[in-house]
Amino acid sequence: MNKGSNKRKTEDNLEKTSSKKQVTLLSMFKPVPAATNTTKKSTENDANDVDVPNTKPKDPKALFKNVNEETLELLDLEIKTMNYEWLKVLSPELVKPYFLKLKRFLNAELAAKKVVFPPSHQIYSWSNYTPPSKVEVVILGQDPYHNYNQAHGLCFSVVKGVKVPPSLVNIYKAIKNDYPDFNIPDHGFLENWAKQGVLLLNTSLSVEAHKAGSHANQGWEQFTDAIINYLNERKTNLVFILWGSHAQKKGAKINKNKHLILKGVHPSPLSAHKGFFECKHFKKANEYLIEHGKSEINWNCLT
Fold this sequence. Notes:
With 303 residues, the protein is α/β, with parallel strands linked by helices. Helices cover 35% and strands 10% of the residues.
């Protein structure tokens, strides 16, 4: 068991979250629809601020017209739920042998009646909240939360109605140190950060219930490396926030001449006292974005 997994288990013990029967997350909120093409405002009904499609949505399957039927079946979830921008960027990665092997593994887990988090339709919710064209800040996590009704595809985030995890409690405290007017929310749902361009990405995108790190080394790490590599190479002036040794190792190849890299201890209660609360990462991220002609992140948008 690696150090990151021990941290996650410690968090679970601290939370003492009871494992209740899973409710259908679709009843709590609808998944973000995959993005289509650029939209424009309706000139006939500006009072209602209605968005209308500029062009017909592109067919995601067209990105995979040269693959066989088995591959199409294996990629059904990606085709149906991943944001089109990300799907286009990552389509070469999705047809590689390692990723198809990963999909066979996940299918076998589900066929064996194992409970996997987050629910399948939310594995790629990060892509729909924060398409490549909107990414400004990247926060790297490690494993999805593995208790019922927690994980929904954004690292450190849990659905509303669930107790705020200890690491996120500490993240809120650190923001409060940066911005004294920050209103600490009574929930851990970070959707509004993601919508502003904060990519909340875990290293591994799925996990078996109550088994931290259970889907590690199955292919997710190589896939999320490809996401980071794309952003590193194709974008400029992004902020990468790397908490803990695991995230720092994963982000070791990020070009510090093109991007701001903020490193610090993990917000877990095991290590947060070693300087996390004073890291000033949230304020430093905004200062960098403003310096490079971008809009700052409104961290105070969760209440």
